[in-house]
Amino acid sequence: MAAIKQRVLNLMRYRPLWRLALAISVLAILYLATTPNPYPVPASASDKLNHLIAFLELTLLTRLAWPEARALQYVPALLGFGVAIELLQATLPHRDFSIADMVADGAGILLGLLPWPGLNRLTNPDLRKSPDSV
């Protein structure tokens, strides 16, 4: 069981994986936010819930990709991405600008900033088990 736990922790510390997942997520969210829906896309019944979930995911992926970064370093970028999406949607005939969407984006970011199991261990390893401990 300890070996599995160690492998999971190693995977969680593998930053290139989370950076790739973040880049793919940003592209997917941008695509979904700017294209008409000619085919059914799995989503919740509420557009605001979709925004909340998307920005919760982006925040968690950012925290995994850069665990040493402070919230003040990436929250403005995430909020800026949400505003940029809304400004872009304002220019599209099949989309609308919505302040409520930006509020939902912010709520998702705030939820992503909450303490999550395992994320704290990435930046604060248990030094008692390190070879250098006395």
Could you give a quick summary of the protein structure above?
This protein is mainly alpha-helical. The chain is built from six helices and no strands.
Describe the protein's architecture and organization.
By secondary structure, this protein is mainly α. It has one domain (2-36, 44-122). It has 6 helices and no strands. Helix 2 packs antiparallel against helix 3 (47-65), helix 3 runs antiparallel to helix 4 and helix 4 runs antiparallel to helix 5 (99-113). The relative contact order is 0.15.
Overall helicity: 55-70%
- Distance between the first and last residues' Cα: 26 Å
Secondary structure class reads: mainly alpha
User: Uncertain runs with pLDDT below 50, 5 residues or more?
Assistant: none
Residue-averaged pLDDT: 86
Give Rg in angstroms: 18 Å
Order of helices and strands: HHHHHH
What profile does the largest beta sheet have? Answer: none
Count helical runs.
6
Query: How large is the share of residues in beta strands?
Result: under 5%
Write the layout of secondary structure elements.
Layout: H1 2-12, H2 15-34, H3 47-65, H4 71-90, H5 99-113, H6 119-123
Helix pairs in contact: 2-3, 3-4, 3-5, 4-5
Main attributes?
single chain; 134 residues; mainly alpha; 6 helices; elongated
